[in-house]
Amino acid sequence: MKLIHVWTFTYPGIVRAIHFSIQDRHTLWLNRTINETDVCIDFGSLIEPTHNDTCLSIRRLDGTQAAVGRRSDGTQAAVGASREGDIVIEMWHGRLGNNLMQFAHAVFAAKVSGQFNVITPPGGSVRKLFEVPSSVEIEPDEDFRARVECGQSLREYFHMKCTGIEQADYKRALSKYLWPYRTRDVNDACEREASNTKRELVIHLRSGDLLDSTHLKSRFAPCSFFDVIVNQDIGFESVRVITEPDRKHPCLPYFAAKNASLQSESLAADACAVMHADHIGFFASSSFSYMLIHFNPNAATVYSPFGSCESVGDHHCEPNFQVIGARTAAQYVKYCIPGMDQVRRGRDKINWMKHYPKGQITRSC
Predict the structure, then answer these.
(1) Same domain, yes or no: 171 and 319
(2) What's the structural domain count of the chain?
(3) 150, 181, 212 - which closes a domain
């Protein structure tokens, strides 16, 4: 078995791959020269809505050699010695949520191909919370290999689609291979959150460059989605809104007027608030909140505005959850919000968010 080099993409793109090599029923051999083929390994994503931003490109190199990663400024830095059978993340992309997805998918690549270690590059937002070693040993997982199927499809580039990934797989990968390396700040912040016994709703908001953007992820839920989540029979004792430091989200005054507390503290404090939220509302598509909920030791309930409007119900929806042994990964409660699929900008977007009638928001199955 040769060295396998992994690039993890969090944005659509095409990258050349050299000597792509995967074996047995999960994979296949494609011995190509440079620039002959583009290869994508797609584990899919359970984040809502699903985007084609979850690919890994893999190349096989001969022999034992030093792995090279890239810093955020594009310069190269030595990662460490890589052996035959290693999975190497060549560079980190994006911020924390994307890094966590990269790491989880590299673990999946190691499991499905029967490799030994995941080699990580220097830097990355993930190291603000976790002291990730340069090499992480991955244990064999025959259940994973038996369940996950990978097959080739041809598009404008070579594409390997792997199916069978579950929410539970993300939780296992992150809890087992990343959580032990948490920093002291994360440990302390998460201990404080774990001691919180209130029946609390946590809401995560995005703003920043997505506030006025044409990106698909710039679709924000209306402010009235807050009322739909809160006005249930759960009886929340408090509502806490985790927002970005710019505090420019249009719904913040609306939430504050309803006695919700606003939080934008350290990365560790905000991340741990999401990690330990037993009830969390997503108001946009965010890998930050989606990936962090997999660290929750309990069964989180996620309220999502990205439910289908094709089959709308009220009280007869079956719970959507997955089980890890005796623990539940997450239960999704999805809502139909007509018009949520449309990308808006500027004043049109803000007006839609502020004035959307809550009566049009319904539970979907």
Answers:
(1) no
(2) 2
(3) 181
Contact of 130 with 46, CB cutoff 8 Å = no
Spatial distance between the Cα atoms of 326 and 23, rounded to a whole number of angstroms: 34
Mapping DSSP to helix (H, G, I), strand (E, B) and coil, where does residue 325 land?
A: coil
Q: Which residue type sits at 12?
A: P
Instruction: Tell me what pLDDT residue 189 has.
Output: 98
Whole-number Å distance between alpha carbons of 261 and 57: 43
End-to-end C-alpha distance for the chain, whole angstroms: 45
Q: Is 106 in contact with 6 (CB distance < 8 Å)?
A: yes
Task: Tell me, yes or no, whether 336 and 298 share the same domain.
Answer: yes
Gap between the Cα atoms of 140 and 124, Å rounded? 27
Q: Supply φ then ψ for residue 100, to 5 degrees.
A: -65, -40
CA quadruple 207, 211, 213, 217: dihedral positive or negative?
positive
Q: Select from 41, 34, 33 the least CA-distant residue to 9.
A: 41
Report pLDDT digits (tens) over 55-100. Answer: 554 443 333 333 333 344 444 443 444 455 577 787 788 899 989 9
List the alpha helices (DSSP H) in 203-326.
225-230, 252-257, 267-275, 287-292
Token pair, residue 2, equals: 């040769």
pLDDT at 69: 38
What's the rounded Cα separation, in Å, for the pair 88 and 5?
Answer: 5
Q: Count Cβ atoms within 10 A of the Cβ of residue 154 and give its class: 0-12 exposed, 13-18 middle, 19 or more buried.
A: exposed
pTM: 0.79
E strands of 32-175, at which residues?
Answer: 39-42, 55-61, 65-70, 76-82, 86-89, 117-119, 135-137, 149-154, 158-163
Residue type, 141: D
Q: Are residues 224 and 193 in the same domain?
A: yes
Q: Which domain holds residue 329?
A: 189-364
Please state, in angstroms and as integers, the Cα–Cα distance from residue 142 to each residue in 17, 148, 296, 326, 337, following that order.
Answer: 28, 10, 25, 20, 41
227-242 per-residue burial string, b: 16 or more CB within 10 A, e: under 16: ebbbeeeeebeebbbb
Backbone angles phi and psi of 273, in degrees to 5: -60, -40
Same domain for 83 and 120: yes
- Domain of residue 209, CATH code: 3.40.50
Q: Indicate if 158 and 28 belong to the same structural domain.
A: yes
